[in-house]
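Notes from the 1:1 (GR / supervisor)

We went over the backlog. Supervisor wanted to see one worked example end to end before approving the batch request, so GR pasted a single chain during the call. The sequence is below; no edits were made to it. Supervisor asked that the structure be written out right there so they could see what the output format looks like.
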Amino acid sequence: MVYEKHQYLPFSSDAQRMAANLEQAYSFWLSARQSLQKLPASMYWAERSGSQYLYVKQNGTDNGTSHGVRSPETEQTFASFTEEKKEALERAASADALIQTRSTLYRRLRMPTLPDKQAEILRKLDIEGLLGTDLMVVGTNAFSGYEWAANAIFPAGNEETQDFDLTWCRDTPASLTFAGTDFEKKTRKTLFSVLRSIDPSYKINPRKPNQAMDADGYEVELLAAPSCHPLPKAEAFAPMQTLIEQEWLLLGSPVSAVVATERGRACPLTVPDPRFMGLHKLWLADKPERNPVKRDKDRRQGDVLLDAVRHFMTASHPLNVDFLFSVPDDLRPTFDVWCAARQFIPAA
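Structure output shown during the call:
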């Protein structure tokens, strides 16, 4: 189907300003939460053999490690920690209140939103420095990010879904640079450990090792391009190694956005280049092995996304000759068919 420009609902100037304000508030919140993340879970004094020792717990399950007998140095360590944690908690609380106010206004303007379950996962991945560096959002949940990039509500494509798809992008051209120290790079958390920190009931599905499920049956799937294999040994997910179509989602320029959630929080998104995602969806619609139930949805999403790029993203993601030359050979027929249906000729 061909989607014309009048079928999209452009964001008003108020909506664009509110989206920018929400993004700013989320950035403030993320900075505070990452500061808290770097601090130990707690510090306390404990009596041992008639003397007081400073003990540090790095996390809630840690038994605590002694950092020395009470002295001016350990007292200063304790005082600095107490002050840093107090300030970070105050900043996070202030940002939470600001986000609540701004997301309420954002939702009144009928801007794109995400369910809170997905949002909680994405916020945690962002705090850990994994969103955009190791993982991107794919599938239907990515479409809120594309609406944000187009500054318009799509006429189709953003249907509600009860699962959540991510793709691996670490050390690829699509990946952001990991901002942590060398030690943090080596010890960064896995997707599975992040899920378990949110809900310990998550388990890898033995019949589908690229999928984790919680006690309520909510599914999180990890996909990976063949060039990304093998994944780090610590990662419990085991995605298929033959999905050549995942390679295409690592091309071009990914999109990052912050959208509101249904319950008034903020949610970060990093999604693949909309041009390659659109072509990817149209290619899936013609893939012989594809579940027939999903094909109509794939084609609808591919058409609405590429038409949104054609109408609204000519500056950021042009469908020009340079893009045409970057399209992989396997995708070229798909792009040709899409162009012919619209009598569209990539510009020089």
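Supervisor's comment: The mean pLDDT is 92.
Batch request approved.
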